[in-house]
Amino acid sequence: MSEYRKEKNYFTKTPITYPYRDDIQYLIHQEDGYEINFLYQQLIGLTANKEGKLVKIIGDKIEPYSIDELALKTMHDKNIIDKGFKILEDIKLLTKIDDYYFIEEAIEMTTNQTEGAKKKKEQRERAKEKNKVDKCPAECPPYIEEDKEKEKRKENRNKNKEIDEEKRNRGDDIDEFASIINTL
To answer: Count of CB atoms within 10 A of residue 40's CB?
Structure first.
């Protein structure tokens, strides 16, 4: 039996139009822009499985990265990180919330869900919403009451058939014999 890998692999899904976006073009044309763009992509990778938050998770604690930690993790100079954060905040690619940074587009770019799975999930959600709308109101219409009566009659017929079947199996066919004798 083959073994399955249990770890999840995340990939950054960069749209083909990414390098041509206005905000990315602006970023690239800044001093050290290519390096800051690369830093931005690394930061997106660091947010994988953290809902777009640029934080470290240690046990149950969630802490923001320090500049020194980011410099070590991304292998960039602290000055580039400071400069990059300022530019990324200016063009709204990075947002400071409380004491941590948030990258909105990182959520979509780092999901480990396939397109097929995403479409199936959306299909199930639409079906679920449709079922909510089709539910019977508090007072059921009369045709549902009729259906209930038909169901009861059907159940009674099935019970009578079961009783007849039991009689035949036991040999208690007295009623049948009596009708045969009466016809003679």
So the answer is: 21
Is the whole-model pTM more than 0.70? no
Neighbour-count burial of 88, counting CB atoms closer than 10 A to its CB (0-12 exposed, 13-18 middle, 19+ buried): buried
The answer to whether residues 169 and 163 touch, using CB atoms and an 8 Å cutoff, is: no
pLDDT in tens, the chain (184 residues): 456 555 666 677 888 898 999 999 999 999 999 999 999 999 999 988 888 899 999 998 999 999 999 999 999 999 999 999 999 999 999 999 988 999 998 888 876 666 677 788 888 888 888 776 555 555 555 566 667 777 888 887 887 777 777 766 665 556 666 666 667 6
- Amino acid occupying residue 4: Y
Paired residues of 101 in beta bridges: 54, 96
| Rounded to 5°, angle at Cα 85 from 82 and 86 | 90
Residues 6+ apart with CB under 8 A from 40: 27, 84, 88, 93, 94
